[in-house]
Structure formats: structure tokens, C-alpha cells
Design a protein that fits this description.
Elements lengths: L7 H7 L5 E5 L2 E4 L5 E3 L2 E3 L4 E3 L5 H7 L2
Length: 64
């Protein structure tokens, strides 16, 4: 987890498209770091991140 002093909308403009995914109001995930997606949670090597209701469709599209 990395904490930034900037607004997430400012960081969003700088992130590489295709390598990152917004999964909740306050969370972005590097798609290469996703190990599993179960229910409304994404597991990475270090964290378990909740998936916001607004972002579930986009996350589901990752599953094919």
C-alpha cells in the first residue's frame, strides 16, 4: 500500500492506463499484482482490498 498526499483524481491522470484499475473510491490496484478476486475482495501479495459497488462491473470484466 502506498499513501499519497495528492487527491486520487490527480494521481489517476498519472497512472499508466491498462496496468491499473480503480476498485473503490480510495483504492487503485496494479492489475499485475492481483492474485485472486473473491466476492467483493481483491487479494494481492500484501493486502486484501475491498471492491466498491460502483466498480464491480469493471472488476468483473477482468474475469472474462
Amino acid at each position: 500500500m502506498i499513501i499519497f498526499p495528492e487527491k486520487i483524481s490527480e494521481i489517476e491522470e498519472k497512472l499508466v492506463q491498462g496496468n491499473s484499475l480503480r476498485v473503490q473510491k480510495s483504492y487503485w490496484v496494479n492489475t499485475a499484482k492481483i492474485q485472486t478476486i473473491k466476492g467483493n475482495r481483491i487479494k494481492t501479495d500484501r493486502n486484501e482490498i475491498p471492491i466498491g459497488q460502483t466498480y464491480r462491473a469493471e472488476v468483473s470484466s477482468l474475469l472474462g
